[in-house]
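Lecture notes, structural biology module. Today: joint structure prediction for complexes of two components.
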Amino acid sequence: MPYFGSEDVVKELKKALCNPHIQADRLRYRNVIQRVIRYHLPPNEEELFDILNLLDSFLKSSSPGVVIGATKLFLILAKKFPHVQTDVLVRVKGPLLAACSSESRELCFVALCHVRQILHSLPGHFSSHYKKFFCSYWEPHYIKLQKVEVLCELVNDENVQQVLEELRGYCTDVSVDFAQASIFAIGNIARTYTDQCVQILTELLGLRQEHITTVVVQTFRDLVWLCPQCTEAVCQALPGCEENIQDNEGRQALIWILGNHEEGIPNAPYVLEDFAENAKSETFPAVKMELLTALLRLFLSRPAECQDMLGRLLYYCIEEEKDMAVRDRGLFYYRLLLLGIDDVKRILCSPKSDPSLGLLEDQPERPVNSWASDFNTLVPVYGKAHWATIFKHQGTDHCGPELPHTNFSYARQLISEENKERVQELPDSEALMLIPNCQFTAEYFEKTWLSLEVAHQQILPWQGEVHPDTLQMALQVVNIQTIAMSRVGAQPWKAYLSAQDATGCLFLTELLLEPGNSKMQISVKQSETRTEILSRFISVLETVIGTIGDMKS
Amino acid sequence: MISQFFILSSKGDPLIYKDFRGDSGGRDVAELFYRKLMGLPGDESPVVMYHDDRHFIHIRHSGLYLVATTSKNISPFSLLELLSRLATLLGDYCGSLSEGTISRNVALVYELLDEVLDYGYIQTTSTEMLRNFIQTEAVVSKPFSLFDLSSVGLFGAETQQSKVAPSSAASRPVLSSRSDQSQKNEVFLDVVERLSVLIAANGSPLKVDVQGELRLKSFLPSGSEMRIGLTEEFCVGKSELRGYGPGIRVDEVSFHSSVNLDEFESHRILRLQPPQGELTVMRYQLSDDLPSPLPFRLFPSVQWDRGSGRLQVYLKLRCDLPPKSQAVNIRLHLPLPRGVVSLSQELSSPEQKADLGEGALHWNLPRIQGGSQLSGLFQMDVPSLPGPPDHGPSTSAPPLGLGPASLSFELPRHTCSGLQVRFLRLTCRPSGNTNPHKWVRHLSHSDAYVIRI
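The predicted structure, tokenised, for the full assembly:
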């Protein structure tokens, strides 16, 4: 494999790609692509487009692994050119859709996860191909769930009718989980296309199926909060469904709606009366608390009908209830009532809906650069949330039995968590502010290096080999850029670093690891002589190198 | 990259286990995987699982689990491709991939794994390079004999059957290094299409999708060049036009990287020098615009007497293929409402069979000729059946749970897109051997053919 350190990157890349051994085996193609990502960031636009043109043919390969790998490379290299990124994502649509309908279920699933990833940034990207995401009856459950999520996200004005029809068909599916997932999906779409969805959900209530009704009522509750304009339609649909709900979440949702929107439901007090009578046999504390709140609200608007009920319920909660949270709430309401009706009104008349919450919850379109480095890895397959829990787990377990080879991703994670804390504890608030992302060309560095005198030299203890990637990452966290680094195992091992202060003062550093690997020599040159800033820079450098050294021992 | 690789049978017994990195920490990783797989909750995907600081990624192939573990965050596409390529490679070497063939060829499998993966890094998966290194022979269950009686008639006369390859022909090990002079040189080319259709309750097609592949299985020595000619009116994309008629159109096509497309533009000829073994030469897709009508239409009529709990379903299945074609192995699967007790049936021809199983009706028809229609009347007792409450006691609206009907079938010698292979020619005769046999077949089968009631 060529080492992409020289300036003739494009020439070396061409040579590598023409190697017949690599051409014959597409899995080695993928290796070449990964090397390019890891070792080289093109310094100027011309070279960047040269490299992209060379690798263009990979996007048309018949193997999905190569195509997706090339896409990731394009997305990362072209991070300053969003139109190139969009163009690449358009070109990769075809192969991704083919992978989504492939015979191999595993490939299908992984492709769907990546489609969802793309939809976070380009929601309209697959809208015209919505039919490819319709579920077949033989597909395993996990694929169907992914497809339903994708359908939710690619809805637009043209396809909403058909997508809703399809989802409506899934709501009566034999599998309870899948039916419930489809109903939640309709609820999601309802935030934008409220009328049609409410109509569909109302029809579903008419089927009087227990698992359907409970989820529909929960969806209504969320919808009423986010889209107050549908409250009337919901209130008309609700009467009669209380007989069908058996499970806790459903009952909680129903009670909430009854309490908050009783003006649209004439027989609300009688329904709540049923619940209140059975409060003793109720096992779920959240339902009881919801019931208390709802009854009190109802009491404010219809005192005559609710007074008795409320009294009995409060008596039960305070005297006989074992769960402390419920008892507490009962006591609170009782004392509030003692104070007077105005105070109660002030506290309990809260807003009935909050449409702005919908805007907060709807994730804004994330720029492609935020997930480009996760594309074509295991991160989209697990989902970001699950991935974060996995790595939190791994970080704390690191003190356990050490694996024989330091894992690159372990190292990266540890550095980002631990080192950031340690490094940020340093005098950050004081004068040393290093500018991030300041790049120097190699000639400029060399010229400046040769023209300055060594301002500071120091020797730090060191053990074992240096891992350049780890070190580079760590230095980047504190805004120190690496100009050049020797390969692992080179004797002697050298590295050249640069950093620039906010005031314009340059720090050029040489790291030298003696053969024998026991001492690392640091030489720092400064463009302006300022001793206090120099000493702070040295302490930052020492901390970083110390952390890397500690990690391996 | 990969830490361990193992193959489990469908019951979880380890058949092959190879540890590349030695970082399993003394645990039985295969056992861990199987337990985790069986205990996974329904909505989590088993494709990539995480347990105890490693990721397990697997595919299922012929009932076996091929699993790779890794502790690094690597591309799932390349891992899945590696696993499928390994499955194909093992199939090529052992004849077919199944529990039996793997158990008989354990030494060969380990040798292959040694060559393909070194310390968890992929070295090569190309059959050409591997041939030079693999020494072990494959063990087959019964030796393939040229004197297979089915192709030789009485007194040596040629029978009709010699025009049909015996079904075990394609499952011979491809890559044996026996330089057996009497070994037949054969090449099999399949045009296989998968049809995925969704038809609404009123009969209009909602979604029509055809995914096609040209698959080549070559027993010829590597390097024999061959030319495959496709229909001349084959057009790619919506705007291309060739010939005078509507032509045969596909939306997208992609080729294997070793195919030479010089003559494709002008004469629709593909040139390639395939290695021994299996290869997918071309893949294409077609949506929504089939040149021929859909193969099947279903006319259901449902009568449901709520009072007595009687459900009567009359299904008329019409085949719209051209009269010379036929469909085989047709199975109709109709989910039924909960609590169906008994079934009585009247079928229009004796070779059909219908039975009730797992909450659904299964109707099996061995063969339907193009243009004909078959029907069946099914009566069931459903004592307690919920459904739309506003309708009267006897209604023709389908009750809840009478699900969409799904059909599975095969259409031999028929392609839905109309694509045909005109010829398959070998440009140079392999030295010394008899004329190699070329078998070409066209086949369509259903992927998911769903008709809503």
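Point to remember: Residues 147-153, 389-395 of chain B have pLDDT under 50 and may be disordered.
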